[in-house]
Predict the structure.
Amino acid sequence: MGFFESDIVQEEAKKLFTDYQELMKLGSDYGKFDREGKKMFIKKMESLMDRYKVFMKRFELSEDFQAKMTVEQLKTQLSQFGITPDQMFDQMNKTLIRMKDELDKTS
């Protein structure tokens, strides 16, 4: 069975995509959130990032040709912006740290 034929992979991909879309929609109102709402949003983003990292690691470790091609396509797309997947995750993490710092300053 191919990597993308796995029910587990398909379900997690669908869930990640749906959760990401919902968080981005919710995040458009981030400035209107109270302190607790901002904390919850940041925690949800951290959780989503962790899940995405695990999902991508599955791609990287897979011997499946399509999975390897997906990783290469991501690397190619990111290289057009001058970054690697690790740098992308680092930048996302720095953004969340900055959001937490700003939240701490307002307490």
